[in-house]
Task: structure prediction
Amino acid sequence: MALRLGFHYHVPMLRRADGLYTPGYQGRFLDSLAAHCDRLICFMHAPLPSEMEIMDYRIRAPNCELVNIGLHASVPRRTLSSPAVIRAIRQRQADLDVMLVRGPSPLLPMVAWAARPKPVALLLVADYLAGVDELPQPWWRKELIRIWAWGNSWAQMQVAKQALTFVNSRLLYEQLHHRIPHIVETRTTTLSESDFFFREDTCQAPPYRLLYTGRISVSKGLVDIVEALAMVVAQGMDVILDLVGPLEPGDPCLEEIYQMAEARGVRDRVQYHGYRPVGPALFEFYRRADIFVIASRSSFEGFPRVIWEAMAHSLPVVATRVGSIPLFLVHERDAILVPPHSPEDLANAIARTIRDSGLRKLLIGSGMQLARMNTLEARAEELMSRIQDYLDHNAMG
Result:
């Protein structure tokens, strides 16, 4: 596909002597897009010193290019520097056929405006307004953030009404489809076809390893998982909980996890392993685990990519029935879904999965089938095909 694609998101990118680096989940996505482009021009922020650790993925695609739009500073500082961002995009406007902006993102409205009159496509993966109450901030700061988020969401909507808009959440689709003329529901993933790891069954010998991967955040219900772990141990089962993921700045979640584990007598069974990049270092945890558990409390949860990763590594999944999760996992054979804020239901689901080999095999088989339908290769081809159709339609119009 001879298409010159621009891309912007606030997750940073770094140029080193041997190539371009960005976090693995973003890098894999960009490589999958580049396979369908003549050129992929990324308008990205430079990382802060504290973000250098997560610049762990080197872009493979030779046709991917970086335009540095300034430091990934605070949102107010990035907003103040937006004139420079606009200039950088306009200087490269002639090199673009279309601009793809992932959102929500602080500069999304300005990036889309700078790209005009070139067509714009959006990939919306969350809702800033929906997550304000879950932020670990004092109430007055939450209210200020809410006001800003409302303004950003309003401006984003004005862009979406004139763009091709992809959403990776059924909830977002249901909220927006009657307001946006060109909207497509999609799914996002980090999985390549070469990543899959098949096994017929797990839980073959104690200790049984529960795994959570993702942000270490209060909103993810990790304290509920620890309490459920204690309940399962009290039933006489030998179980360990592995936690893998980045800490959220200002979020007291890890401290609360340790406090709960200590109080329930399972501190030695809870192991935090820190951040691991997408790829072999992360996937090794999936391969040695027995059950994947995610207990998000947020009613606005999208569909976590980590569920696809778990399914692709032959793990039965126990998850809370929130957000888009029950809208994608609609059959009992797909995953065991329980109410949020309910450690007892989590514990019962975990214990049932450990005891029932037939159930595990059913969950593993169905999950593997779902994950195989949702690879980077398949989703990138779908997204780029939709963009090309949109451009062709506009050209004829």
Q: What stands out?
A: The chain has two domains: 4-189+375-396, 193-372. The mean pLDDT is 94.
